[in-house]
Design goal:
Number of domains: 2
Protein name: Succinate-semialdehyde dehydrogenase/glutarate-semialdehyde dehydrogenase
Radius of gyration: 23 Å
CATH class of the largest domain: Alpha Beta
Distance between the termini: 65 Å
Number of strands: 20
CATH superfamily of the largest domain: Aldehyde Dehydrogenase, Chain A, domain 1
CATH topology of the largest domain: Aldehyde Dehydrogenase, Chain A, domain 1
CATH architecture of the largest domain: 3-Layer(aba) Sandwich
Largest sheet: 7 strands, mixed
Pfam families: Aldedh
InterPro entries: Ald_DH/histidinol_DH, Ald_DH_C, Ald_DH_CS_GLU, Ald_DH_N, Aldehyde_DH_dom, Aldehyde_DH_Superfamily
Structural class: alpha/beta
Keywords: Oxidoreductase
Bound molecules: adenosine-5'-diphosphate
Family: Belongs to the aldehyde dehydrogenase family.
Number of helices: 15
């Protein structure tokens, strides 16, 4: 049995992936668990070398991965290549970090004793990933797990399994063995239940919707599995009168249109201060109007299709509702004349915070622009969300920049730029955006257990 993967740009068949039976999924989990003793005992240097080899093989074949991603996800080549560099960064970083999982010693509290703190791999682990970054979502989980000495079984999104299986193929070529890295695809709910119901799996890392994240967290509660949860967002993007105007416009447009807006850190509520509001809306519209909407297999940056009909319908409904409630459509505002899953890059102004569009993760190429007057007001409005993943702000006032970095409720506060992620920083959220961090040395802490050892009787 296979899962048919559809190209969102034209509805054609992009490829097929295994639709595994429950027995096949369980066998993969067994292999993941059985490989743990061997993998966790390997020298950190050896684990790092295998990751490095995997990194090199992919780096030499980036175009192969990029084209698969364009076909199964719809993002344009430029986005796909950017994602590959970002995703490769995690393999490279953790190949090196494997050797730096340092423990600690603490001055002893007892006579003739020594206190040691060791970092032990958490155990066999599992991960579930979404379709919006088919490459990077996988590399940043598995590279961290493997570096720490954990094995991992991954369930990628059934909408984008082709990139995932290509990653597995290259991992095998690099010498990363069966059991250490396993992949399963099939019925998401059933696979989720196998992962959460197996007491041998000591950790689950999930990126996806808050609804599914909560479901998995509840199930993991049964045997108190560790979790990393990267869930939804509702990112504020705040532009003050004193901002570097052109930089703010450029950063907003590129952060928003990447992946057609289907990104959890996509600016979702753009707050612009009164003094520049009208000029800012015009400048964004002028810039966005120049960007083409098209299928992604070409060199120019284009806004590609949305992932599926449900994604398009959601965006269309949010925009319609906002229009009904009095929003002004500055640009776009409807499905694109190309048909299919293309939606026009859309700018909405004169919005208020009670509209559904202000409270929902849009996941489409829509810029909702809100007006604000004071810093206190905008901080309160920015924080008025169940989510807390990322917040962006543009200001040249240093005191304000520091105040914002403290007062905004988010796992990540990004000032005077629209660029968030890279392997060396801790990515993650608070509130309903989840918990745990990916990337940097914080990321590896999610895959180790701290073990305190008291070595007593040293005088004997
Ligand atoms: P999105 O809205 O981004 O598709 P989802 O949370 O639905 O977010 O999907 C993210 C990942 O979670 C995908 O791999 C999907 O197959 C998986 N998933 C969806 N529902 C479940 C479930 N009930 N149990 C386990 N995994 C699920």
């Amino acid at each position: 049995m296979t899962i048919k993967v559809t190209n969102p740009a034209d509805g054609s068949l992009a490829g097929e992936a295994p639709d595994m039976t429950l027995a096949e999924v369980k066998a993969a989990v067994d292999r993941t668990c059985n490989a743990f003793p061997m993998w966790s005992r390997k020298l950190a240097r050896e684990r790092g070398e295998l990751l490095r080899r995997w990194f090199e093989l992919i780096r030499d074949d980036k175009r192969v991965f990029a084209e698969i991603m364009v076909r199964e996800n719809g993002k344009c080549l430029a986005d796909a290549m950017g994602e590959i560099d970002y995703g490769l960064g995690f393999i490279e970083w953790y190949a090196e970090e494997a050797r730096r999982v340092y423990g600690d010693t603490i001055p002893t509290h007892a006579d003739n004793a020594q206190v040691l703190v060791m970092k032990e791999p958490a155990g066999p682990t599992a991960a579930i990933t979404p379709w919006n970054f088919p490459f990077m979502m996988i590399t940043r989980k598995i590279a961290t797990a493997l570096a720490a000495g954990c094995t991992m079984v991954i369930k990628p999104s059934e909408l984008t399994p082709l990139t995932a299986y290509k990653l597995l193929e290259y991992a095998r070529r690099a010498g990363i063995p069966e059991g250490v890295f396993e992949m399963v695809t099939g019925n998401p709910k059933e696979i989720g239940e196998v992962f959460t119901g197996d007491a041998r799996i000591r950790k689950l890392s999930f990126t996806g919707s808050t609804a599914v994240g909560k479901l998995l967290a509840t199930a993991c509660g049964n045997d108190l599995k560790k979790m990393t949860l990267e869930l939804g967002g509702n990112a504020p993007f705040i532009v003050f009168d004193d901002a570097s105007f052109e930089d703010a416009v450029a950063a907003l447009v590129s952060a928003k249109l990447r992946n057609s807006g289907q990104v959890c850190i996509s600016p979702n509520r753009v707050f612009v201060q009164d003094g520049i509001h009208d000029r800012f809306v015009e400048a964004v519209a002028e810039r966005v109007a120049k960007i083409r909407v098209d299928q992604g297999l070409q060199d120019a940056f284009v806004v590609g299709p949305l992932i599926n009909r449900a994604g398009l319908d959601k965006v269309a409904a949010l925009v319609e509702e906002a229009k009904q409630a009095g929003a002004r459509v500055v640009l776009g505002g409807k499905p694109h004349a190309k048909g299919g899953l293309f939606y026009e890059p859309t700018i909405l102004a004169d919005l208020d915070d009670a509209m559904t569009v202000a409270r929902t993760e849009i996941f489409g190429p829509v810029f909702p622009i809100y007006r604000f007057r004071t810093e206190d007001e905008v901080v309160r409005r920015a924080n008025d969300s169940e989510y807390g993943l990322v917040a962006y702000a543009f200001t040249r006032d240093l005191g304000r920049a520091f105040r914002l970095s403290k007062n905004i409720e988010a796992g990540m506060v990004i000032l005077n730029t629209g660029s968030v992620g890279t392997a060396s920083v801790p990515f993650g959220g608070i509130k309903h955006s989840g918990y745990g961090r990916e990337g940097s040395y914080y990321g590896i802490e999610e895959y180790v257990e701290v073990r305190y050892v008291l070595m007593g009787g040293l005088d004997k």
